[in-house]
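so i finally got all the pieces together for this one. its two components total, 664 residues if u count the protein bits. some of the lines might not be protein, just check the labels. i wanna see the whole assembly predicted at once instead of chain by chain like last time, that was a mess tbh
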Amino acid sequence: MANIGYLQLVRHCNQYCRFCSNPASGWMLDLETARRAVDDFADRGYFGVILTGGEPSLSPIVADVTRHAVARGLHVRMITNGSKLAQPGLAASYVEAGLRHFHVSIHSCREELEDFLTGVRGSFALAMQALEQLGAAGATVNVNTVINKLNADHLDENVRYFVGRFPFIGHFVWNNLDPSMGRAETNRDTAHRLADFELSLARAMRFLHKGGRTFRVERVPLCYMTEFAHCSTETRKIVKGEERIVHFLDEKGTVRQTDFRHAKSDACKACTLDSICGGLFELGEHYDLAELYPVFVPAEEIVRRIREDQAP
Amino acid sequence: MAARPAARQVVPLGRACDNACVFCAQEGLPRETVHDVVMPQPGAEGITFVGGEPGSDPRLEGLVARARAAGHTRIGVQTNGRALSAPGRIEALARAGLTDVHLSIHGPDARVHDWHTGAPGSFDAALQTLAAARAAGLGVVVVTVLTRSSFRVLAPMPRLLASRGVAAWCIDVPRWRGRAQTDADRVVPRLALALPFALHAIDAAEALGLPAFVRGAPSCLLGPFASRALAEDEARGFAEACATCPSKATCTGVDTPYLARFGAGELTPCPAVARDTRRASLAALFVGTGEMAPVREDLAVHPPPERARVALPVLGRPAPAHAEVPAGAPKQTGDALKAILPDLFAGKRGER
């Protein structure tokens, strides 16, 4: 098992994404509390901790939290929009402290659209600079993308662009939009339907797989990623019996998630993958149980691939 | 679009059916029985009784005998095979003059097929009918509808069918009508995802000596198997990119609601395709869906994402989330965090 804990360092941000799921709450982590959380993850035998936010690079305690976590034997990652990491020196200083793995959130390779989605003109250019800085610092770099209505048709174009320009990016993460919380709830123009991204996601996954790269897909029911079901975050956690703890900087507080199965439709009862599928994360106005359909491929092969794969 | 060559004449008996297929294109039409069955004049390609489900019609044996008496020598029935699996039915029909059976089998096993038909036991019944028909010396062809739930499990179909003496197989792209329209999200597959599986299955079928066809797929998505496309009575719809396509004259196109839903990005002009005419008499056995429910205009089609993006510049700055505070609001931290993260301060870490 490779459980990873999530620590929100701050909730403010230097971007203003239309679909932000964790917008400014006014709370902010101090070093003392962060160390308590890190100690708790270590005591539980967790594999690592992910520093997130808001925009965690805006927190003054990143290096100190990292050093403490590394000393406790934890692997440390950061999910960042990269705007601040575009500055020369910051990436190298994080790497020096022991933070060597970054998930840079970029939602489109189309500059105008990326700036629109993040709400800040110039954010695409900064993200590109951040990728250069992180690559030069020798960090492990992943790209995180929130699937939404406006990028749903070119997820494959995105990965071809990023791999072409930054060949050192070996891993991608897609998070399907959560329309139930944050700004996605108040900005419905970003909410898509599952079938909107199905083809471009399939092409993107196939492209990465052919090139020997890896990826994870979160909140996508297996009938919309059947050929790569073993790359579903929820399915992997179900098969491996993993959990995750998130310390939210809002009224939700500490959430320990052990069940990764969400809503299903009647049609799912016939599906051979029902027992390892996370289902539909949120029944907003846009995701629709009517989009779920049974597939009849054998689950055993998927379970075997996940069990044989040591990667988290 | 070229007319169907030497098509069979169909004889509709009514729309009553004992299955409830997830893609039924007749759903919504009245389920009335045709009381005065009109028997066509004998022709070269013969006739096929269609439904609904003709096997449920007690007049079927008599009508087959009547057709034979009228001079028809090639008489078929399009069936799901359930009612015809009753002992003695196929034998009686063969004695009356039936020559071929056109079965619907929608997956390689009971789990897949029965989900599509909504009828537990229907797969076993269809295979019983298939076996009885072959034993009685009747020709059997099989249609499989290509759905979201079937396209990934087509691979075992060729061996299943070839080993049971099936004479030809056709993979049908569902029409965006009836239940396939009301449940389109669940049923109609994205063609660029599903058709490669169909083409692999056609290739495997041909390797086993089972002639295979596809109906309702645009030529440009059929690669080397475009010649196996069966003609339809009328073309579906075309995209702008199709206007100059050399193969348009023989292409079935794509249902227009499909284009409205997904756009035309999957379609590209392709070389002209000559239909494979060597198997015209086999192809003629696949008489198609028949009368379909009209497209319902009251059902909304969700627009494709690229159309949504056209409005991008006027969308404006996003609204804040319900619980969001201004970015510059004073920060709560330190001891105040005990209010939201009490467990981290409770001295019972590791016990949650």
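Chain B has one domain: 9-308.
The first helix of chain B runs from residue 60 to 69.
anyway lmk what u think
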